[in-house]
Design a protein that fits this description.
Length: about 180
């Protein structure tokens, strides 16, 4: 049984499965011997398999050890209430509070369609955090919506490792002290 959210502090323990290999390209040898990153990432997706694929890709690319997982927008906001993050990878189509409403709330928009009486306040430090939409709905119209609610980038599912790497490097900057320079 899965917890509502999980804080990960260790690298993936199992080898990639066929699903990993088909969905995410194999690692480059130049990326496999890097020191661990201090980057703090929040992964939000209602599908546990997608969360594990993202977790493995981020660990392989950047040796990121601090990844928190949430299975919907409400859980993500609870984590954001107490923890500053460097980046959020946010699924769009989730039950309950979807990714669009979650991004709007993070950015300070209190006028969302989800009942807000139980939603926590977000740390000010997280209001400007880069948010990456992770979605199957990446049409031009959808991307405009994501941008209008404050998302900084969009990745299409299935995630392609080189695109994930490129987006994070672009959003966090090549010289970011929390991201390993590549």
């Amino acid at each position: 049984m899965l917890n509502s959210y999980t804080t990960l502090s260790s690298p993936p323990s199992s080898p990639p499965t066929a699903l990993d290999i088909d969905t995410i390209a194999p690692p480059s040898s130049a990326l496999t011997c890097r020191p661990r990153s201090s980057l703090k990432v929040l992964l939000v997706d209602d599908n546990p398999i997608n969360l594990q694929l993202l977790r493995r890709a981020l660990y392989t690319l950047f040796k990121i050890n601090h990844m928190d997982m949430a299975y919907d927008g409400h859980q993500a906001l609870k984590l954001l209430e107490h923890q500053p993050y460097d980046v959020i990878l946010l699924d769009i189509d989730m039950p309950g509070m979807n990714g669009v409403d979650t991004a709007r709330w993070i950015r300070g928009d209190q006028e969302i369609s989800t009942p807000s009486s139980t939603l926590p306040l977000v740390l000010d430090a997280n209001k400007t955090i880069p948010i990456v939409a992770v979605t199957t709905s990446d049409s031009l119209e959808a991307r405009i919506i994501y941008q209008n609610v404050g998302m900084d980038a969009c990745l299409s599912k299935p995630i392609i490792r080189s695109q994930l790497k490129s987006q994070l490097l672009q959003l966090l900057g090549h010289s970011s002290s929390s991201l390993i320079s590549l």
